[in-house]
Amino acid sequence: MINILIVDDQKHIRDGLQAMLRQFPLQLDNIYSAANGIEALPILRQHSVELVITDIMMPDMDGLALMAQTKEECIKVDYLIISGYSDFAYAQKAIELGAKGYLLKPVKRDDLQTAIEHLSQEITTRQALSRNMEHISRRAQETDRKELRMFMQGAVSDEAWILQTQQLNPELWHNYRLCLLREELWINQPGANSAHTIESIAYRVYGRQGCICLQHSPYLILAIDAAADAGALPAALKLGQSDAITAMTGPQQGLKALPDSYTQVSELYRHSYLFPDKRCILPTHIERLEQQWELPYEKLYALFHLIGAHNSGKIIQEISLIFNKDVLQRYHIRYTQQLCRAIVQMLEEYERVIRPYMGEETLDIECLRNLFHYPGIRDYLQALQQQLLRLNQFYNEYKCSYRNTQDLNEAVRFIHESYHKPLDLAMVSNHVSLNYAYFSNLFKKNIGKGFAEYLRDVRLDKARRLLAETDHKIVEVAAMVGYESYKSFTRAFRDVMNMQPTEYRQQMRRKLEREGKYQDTAL
């Protein structure tokens, strides 16, 4: 598909040429038209036009002047000249300016079609060749970038490769800074800028020779001209509303220094978590940080002693004290990393204690293992606070569950000791010091039956033993298991056993007699 521009001061000629072009069996895209060179230039500047069919003699700017102007502006386009003058001097001048053909007016249909088909084939072949060359060049650049990235990250390369690669851009590698940039906003979040946008800003600041992109993901890494002002890129990013954190090394000399530079810029980037208000981190920001420290274990123990104390506000306050900005900014970033690891270890220990009581609920401790998975330290502390508050909730539920278990065990023990006495729910709830209604719900939820039903079953179980193993009268058995009247005892017994107490006693004695006879026979 090609775009064509027809330039002629006579409208009927422009329309006639356009009509003929539309009838040709060619893959044409857009056909533009202009009355002279002055009208044609904006079209050529704004649109991708492959072929211009132009008259030579036109007012204001003729065809030859148009050809000269586009050549001066480096606008790549082919020309087919048409003219009513069979003057060889015009044709010769057009050929000198790069015209691909020359047709005399009135233009014959067959001559135009032959010329257009020939030029169309030439343009298509050239476009395909250009695409192939661009693809080859792009693949070569990607290979070079991959090798540079691997070398930067520690892959071993021989001296010959280093010298050869350095010669591809000797001025930059002679004096450069390594620059790491990461977007402040997450990708796909509204308003976020792509790494390619940031990269294009860098190329505008330093030029193609003063900037090389070494890595796009997980963050952008560039080698930039150290002779330029270190603040130029952050200023351009701010002007372009690209909210990115920038870490930048000092000047480096020679490609051999690239692996060490990568280590330095990675270290600078990690320290950006200590200085969330700085958009650009330089070596001067971290050179005085202390390298020796002791973790505040007493504060950590105090924090975890609050777990289960029904005081979420105090937990949040203690987190803020432990991760105090002024304290963190005194030390190397490793101090903050060790602090995070210590808290994760304590979280794991507490979770192990209550895990059997958590059911399907869990803490997301994995999300706290790497500070640098978060956009900034504030986001990490928010996640830490959330997990500690969840632990506090689980621990309170665990303590409540444990306490309820102890209370229920004592209530059951008391029932089994006192079943033969007058006993009701109020007496048992008072014994374990729990609210009447709360104890009633707790008992039914955990025992599986209400208090009255459970007490009845305990008493009847004792009664069945007495009926089977003793000669006490039924009325005596009723009193011995806590029933105030013979009638209420027999009614309860009949409801559960579907028989009277006397029937049960007779049944059990016949069973014992049968078992006794069986044993005598066996002997």
Automatic annotation (TrEMBL):
<dbReference type="InterPro" id="IPR001789">
    <property type="entry name" value="Sig_transdc_resp-reg_receiver"/>
</dbReference>
<dbReference type="InterPro" id="IPR018060">
    <property type="entry name" value="HTH_AraC"/>
</dbReference>
<dbReference type="InterPro" id="IPR051552">
    <property type="entry name" value="HptR"/>
</dbReference>
<dbReference type="Pfam" id="PF00072">
    <property type="entry name" value="Response_reg"/>
</dbReference>
<dbReference type="InterPro" id="IPR011006">
    <property type="entry name" value="CheY-like_superfamily"/>
</dbReference>
<keyword id="KW-0804">Transcription</keyword>
<feature type="domain" description="Response regulatory">
    <location>
        <begin position="3"/>
        <end position="120"/>
    </location>
</feature>
<feature type="domain" description="HTH araC/xylS-type">
    <location>
        <begin position="409"/>
        <end position="507"/>
    </location>
</feature>
<keyword id="KW-0902">Two-component regulatory system</keyword>
<dbReference type="GO" id="GO:0043565">
    <property type="term" value="F:sequence-specific DNA binding"/>
</dbReference>
<protein>
    <recommendedName>
        <fullName>Two-component system response regulator</fullName>
    </recommendedName>
</protein>
<feature type="modified residue" description="4-aspartylphosphate">
    <location>
        <position position="55"/>
    </location>
</feature>
<dbReference type="InterPro" id="IPR009057">
    <property type="entry name" value="Homeodomain-like_sf"/>
</dbReference>
<keyword id="KW-0963">Cytoplasm</keyword>
<keyword id="KW-0805">Transcription regulation</keyword>
<dbReference type="Pfam" id="PF12833">
    <property type="entry name" value="HTH_18"/>
</dbReference>
<keyword id="KW-0238">DNA-binding</keyword>
<keyword id="KW-0597">Phosphoprotein</keyword>
<dbReference type="GO" id="GO:0000160">
    <property type="term" value="P:phosphorelay signal transduction system"/>
</dbReference>
<dbReference type="GO" id="GO:0005737">
    <property type="term" value="C:cytoplasm"/>
</dbReference>
<dbReference type="GO" id="GO:0003700">
    <property type="term" value="F:DNA-binding transcription factor activity"/>
</dbReference>
